[in-house]
Amino acid sequence: MNTANNKILVGIGIILLGLAVVWFVMNRQSASTPSGSAQVETPPAAEATLPSDTLPPATAESPAFVGTIWTAGAILGTPTLATTTLTVQFDDQGRVTGSDGCNTFSGVYTTAGTELTIDPAMMSTQIGCEEAVMQQAEAFTTRLRATTSYQLGDGRLILNQGSVAGLSFFGQRNPLSKTSWTITAYNNGRQAVVGLIQDTTLTITFGDDGTISGVASCNTFSGQYSLSLSPQNITIGQIAVTRMACIEPEGVMEQEAAFLAALESAASWGIRGTQLDLRTADDELAIIGVNSRNL
Description:
20% of the residues lie in helices and 37% in strands. By secondary structure, the chain is of the alpha+beta class. It has two domains: 69-172, Lipocalin, CATH 2.40.128.270; 179-294, Lipocalin (Beta Barrel). The termini are far apart.
């Protein structure tokens, strides 16, 4: 009887020992492989992506990268100041030129596919402007120098700095279109560029349909114009003027006649920050104006 009991006890012990071994082995496996780890995959490293306004492919109707004067609409998504014109133009000789809204600049660039490198050692004029304009100019040129690639399409140009679309431009075949300028000086026809008579106004507005109009001191005027980008030539046709006569302030009618003659003599144009220069065929200043609004 005792022998039988001993055998039973030994059997139970063996069973308990086996269960303990099984539990130990399973516990070791559980410790080395956390629960649910078989279903967990290490996610790939996040890839830097461009903003969601990636452009559609360029089409035959899109302005060309080379030759177009591209006008900046935004810097890092912030619209440019309404009273400034920031531009960039790439020619077919590897030269880049433009305006940062205050000064003009020039430099060299290279491309490989859509990769774009602009040499940081750009040359620039050194005109001083108000603080907000200077801050915008610095932000613009900093982004421009750091450009690594470009996107072209839908009438726009995006210059990327790495994974950031920093500068957004729209192409203008006519950068004077829909702009208005307040005249600050004009050529009086006697080899002198002079300011305006006090309390008088001279303006020029360029339409998008080839029309030009404005205020000539006493009367208003209108006419037609055409221009080219390279070289930056302009032709202003015969001007039509209303027929009011003004006697005050003194000399206003003489100023009007000299201004209109200077306007018709314009043969080239240039934008330097907020300033428009119209020059004669002899490269003499004909008219100087400042941007008064973007229509």
